[in-house]
Amino acid sequence: TDIANISKRKIKNKNTIDVIAVSTMSFWHGYDRFIEGMGEYYKENRDRKIIFHLVGTGRELDKYKNLISKYNLENYVILHGKKTGIDLDKIYDHSDIALDSMGRHRAGINFNSTIKGKEYGAKGLPIISGVETELDSCQDYKYYMRVEASDNPIDMFSVINFYDYIYNNGETSKQIIDYIHNYTK
């Protein structure tokens, strides 16, 4: 992927935490962990609204749909289907955080360096990963959070804390986007 050909996301002004995952929805992507974490989070009425944008299609889609229904998350998980170009850019423009693979351990993978992660970075998005990436070795890079490699639901309070750490620390959204984009280059 040529980072110069990827436009940075636009700055949004709203009160939700929008998380994006772009994928072929294979079992090792593990987005069921995020949906289950949202299910736990939304068991109670919450002040902070988290929206999960799942972009793509694949074998796990029916599993994700069943979990969305089980946890009554129809208003919080948006299934966009396969998107490219401007249609995908519009979704990126409303996103605050991107999810890399949450389940690579299911395929016996302990380290992953994905094109998806590079695209997220080129867009200027902080990343959450469930597998070690090259960003784990970047001591001065605060726009990355790794969660444990397990099948446990992702703790939404840790996602909120990560969001607040990034977006409520005195930097403008433009500064954050520019820094992540340039770092990815």
List the helices and strands and how they pair.
Blueprint: E1 17-22, H1 31-41, E2 50-55, H2 61-70, E3 77-81, H3 85-93, E4 97-99, H4 115-123, E5 127-129, E6 144-146, H5 156-167, H6 173-184
Parallel strand pairs: 1-2, 1-4, 2-3, 4-5, 5-6
Helix pairs in contact: 1-2, 4-6
3D structure, described in words:
The chain is an alpha/beta fold and 185 residues long. Helix content is 34%, strand content 14%. The protein contains 6 helices and 6 strands. The chain has helices at 31-41, 61-70, 85-93, 115-123, 156-167, 173-184, and strands at residues 17-22, 50-55, 77-81, 97-99, 127-129, 144-146. Strand 4, helix 4 (115-123) and strand 5 (127-129) form a beta-alpha-beta unit. Helix 1 packs parallel to helix 2 (61-70). The termini are close together.
State the main characteristics.
185 residues; alpha/beta; six-stranded parallel sheet; globular
Spatially, the strands of the biggest sheet line up as 3-2-1-4-5-6
The low-confidence runs, each spanning 5 or more residues with pLDDT under 50, are none
* Tally of contiguous helical segments: 6
Q: Output the helix-strand order.
A: EHEHEHEHEEHH
Termini separation (Å)? 11 Å
DSSP summary, beta strand count? 6
Q: Approximately what portion of the residues adopt beta-strand conformation? A: 5-15%
* Oligomeric assembly: single chain
Mean pLDDT: 92
Q: What is the approximate shape?
A: globular
Radius of gyration: 15 Å
